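User: Hey, my collaborator sent me this sequence without any context and asked if I could get a structure. I don't really work with proteins. Can you help?
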Amino acid sequence: MAQAILVTRLLLLLTWMLLAGRAAGTPGAQAPHWTGAMGQEVLVQRQHSHGSVCLHCCCAVVSGPCTVQGFLGGALSVKCKYKQRYERKPKFWCKKGTGSHCAADIIITSKNHPVVLQDRLSIQDNRAQRKFTVTMEALTEGDAGNYLCGVRTGKTQSNESVNVKVIVSPAPTLRPGPAIPPTTAAPPGTPDPFRYFPVLAGLQVLALLAMSGAVLWVSLRGG
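Assistant: No problem. I've predicted the 3D structure and written it out in structure-token form, which is a compact way to encode the shape of the chain:
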């Protein structure tokens, strides 16, 4: 009796595997295929928007990246942090001059204006998290160089800042992905190989069930 039940279970398992294999081979059962072009586009867009940041520099009050990189025509963001008690102090970003002084192109916040927009530059001071973000857009070769990211700590324009080197590289080029050949429809009159699949599958299932019943009947009589 136990042998008959085992044989029946094996036949049912084979039947299920056969039907599952046929269903996987039918048209439209394949998993969706994605090309790499979109992934490359997203990667390049991310590089254009944020650039790459390596290492960190710091002073007594301010810390920030030592180097940031962007691409021609793109944008980059620089995040600098500062210590407590300097939330209301002006934050600035400028081209470095002599020592810790600004040479030109300064953008600076104020006590009442934590967000400032100026041409292609913007600076946003998040006082709750004690960090400010500088964004440079439409990068040109002239934007490369050394900058100061800092806090103005006194009325006499005394600064606490870190040096940030900006690198502007040529924009990366995208390589076109492999061309996907168009699908051609079958010529008229071509028989569909899957047209009779339900009938054949049903006959196979009936045959297997009949064999299973015969084996079970013989086993019971022999027992």
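In plain terms: The chain has three helices and twelve strands. You can pass these tokens on to your collaborator as they are.
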